[in-house]
Amino acid sequence: MADFQRPLLSKEEGHSEYVKKEIPSFGDLRNMYNQKWAKEKQDFQAQLKANFFNLVERHAEGKQEIFMLCVPERKEKLYTDAFLDIFPSQYTPHIGEVERLANKRTRKLHITLPQSFH
């Protein structure tokens, strides 16, 4: 059996691009990841707020679906924690069971709104 070795990057794939790059420290890399998550979290919470005020404008009441979460399983806890962070317990935030939609893993996020005045 012959050994066959192939370079990981060929000249055409940008080998020279990586020659001058430095590997960041572990802490710097963690900060980069945290900054990326902070931006994603801010965008996600902004979408939740927009959906919340949309429900309020139409005087929705009772248990309401506010968002359908469809993220990789490794990020699910981050997103559900971000959801729980912005809704106080009076809204009884609830994370639904895992469902399959178009062969993707999803969870419905619900809140409970008070009865409207009529």
What does this 3D model show about the protein?
This protein has 118 residues and is α+β, with helices and mostly antiparallel strands. The protein has a domain at 39-118. It is built from three helices and four strands; from the N terminus they run ααβαβββ. Strands 1, 2, 3 and 4 form a four-stranded antiparallel β-sheet that branches. A hairpin with a 2-residue loop joins strand 3 and strand 4 (104-113). Helix 2 (26-57) crosses helix 3 (73-86). The mean pLDDT is 90.
Radius of gyration: 22 Å
Number of β-strand runs: 4
Classification by helices and strands: alpha+beta
Number of helices: 3
For the largest beta-sheet, the strand count, sense and barrel status come to: 4 strands, antiparallel
- SSE pattern: HHEHEEE
Strand content: 15-25%
User: Low-confidence parts lasting 5 or more residues at pLDDT below 50?
Assistant: none
Helix fraction, binned, reads 40-55%
Give average pLDDT, whole number: 90
Name the overall outline: elongated
End-to-end Cα distance, whole Å, is 82 Å
Task: Give the structure's gist in a few sentences.
The protein is of the alpha+beta class. It has helices at 15-19, 26-57, 73-86, and strands at residues 62-69, 94-95, 99-101, 104-113. It has a domain at 39-118.
Keywords:
118 residues; alpha+beta; four-stranded antiparallel β-sheet; 3 helices
What layout of secondary structure does this protein have?
Layout: H1 15-19, H2 26-57, E1 62-69, H3 73-86, E2 94-95, E3 99-101, E4 104-113
Antiparallel strand pairs: 1-4, 2-4, 3-4
Helix pairs in contact: 2-3
